[in-house]
Structure formats: C-alpha cells, structure tokens
C-alpha cells in the first residue's frame, strides 16, 4: 500500500532526525510498523469512500494520547523504547486511500 509506505517513510525521517536510535533499530521499527498498519487497515480500507474509517486509521500523539498504540506495538515488537523515537508531543497522521496528511 502506497499510503503505508508514505507514513513509514515520513516517520522514519522524523525518528532519524531525533538522533536517538541507530539505523538498524530504526529499520526494525519501521518494518514492524508497516506490518502492524497493514494488519490494522485490513477490512478498514474503502477506496470508494476514503473518509470512511478515517478515525480508526489515524495515528495520533497529543496530551491526551501520549503514545499511539500502533507506534507502541511496533516499538515493543522491534525492541525500541517509545521515548527513543524522539517524536513531537503533538502529531496527527491521517492515512486514507490515495492520501496521507500530517498535522
């Protein structure tokens, strides 16, 4: 899925920018993230109606949700500490058929 590849590429660049993880750990993390998102989106992907399921596919970090469950799963499965990702305190990624948006 192109959209998952775009999300993984974007997050990989953000994590790399934080300079807290070695390249091999970053690669392991993004591989696990790609698998986790593919599994999660299965059955929740509607190309004919891209906004359907949008909230379910959203990756969100904010003061109410300090750790996104999909990112946390990828961390646990790759042996990476969530805090070492160095992500901003607020981040929202909408992953829809044909479009990925970030705020």
Task: Walk me through this protein's architecture.
The protein is of the alpha+beta class. It is 49% helix and 13% strand. The chain has four helices and three strands, in the order αααβαββ. It has helices at residues 2-18, 23-41, 54-57, 69-78, and strands spanning 59-61, 91-96, 99-102. A three-stranded antiparallel sheet has the order 1-2-3. Helix 1 (2-18) packs antiparallel against helix 2 (23-41). It is globular, with a radius of gyration of 13 Å. The two termini are 21 Å apart. InterPro entries: Anti_prolifrtn, BTG, BTG-like_sf. Residues 1-103 form the Anti-proliferative protein domain. This is Protein btg3. Belongs to the BTG family.
How is this structure best summarized?
This protein has 103 residues and is an alpha+beta fold. The chain is 49% helix and 13% strand.
Could you name the key traits of this structure?
BTG-like_sf; BTG; alpha+beta; 3 strands; Protein btg3; 103 residues; Anti_prolifrtn
Mean pLDDT metric:
96
Write the element-wise H/E pattern from the N-terminal end onward.
HHHEHEE
**In whole angstroms, how far apart are the ends?**
21 Å
Query: β content, as a range?
Result: 5-15%
Uncertain segments are none
* Structural classification: alpha+beta
Q: For the largest beta sheet, what order do the strands appear in spatially?
A: 1-2-3
**How is the biggest beta sheet arranged?**
3 strands, antiparallel
Percentage of helical residues?
40-55%
Computed Rg: 13 Å
* Form type: globular
State the total count of DSSP E strands: 3
Put simply, the count of helices is 4
């Amino acid at each position: 899925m192109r959209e998952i590849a775009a999300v993984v590429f974007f997050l990989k660049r953000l994590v790399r920018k934080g300079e807290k993880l070695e390249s091999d750990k970053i690669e392991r993390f993004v591989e696990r993230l790609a698998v986790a998102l593919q599994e999660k989106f299965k059955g929740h992907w509607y190309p004919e109606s891209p906004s359907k399921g949008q909230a379910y596919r959203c990756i969100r970090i904010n003061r109410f949700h300090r750790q996104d469950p999909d990112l946390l799963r990828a961390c646990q499965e790759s042996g990476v500490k969530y805090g070492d990702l160095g992500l901003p305190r607020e981040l929202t990624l909408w992953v829809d058929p044909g479009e990925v948006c970030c705020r």
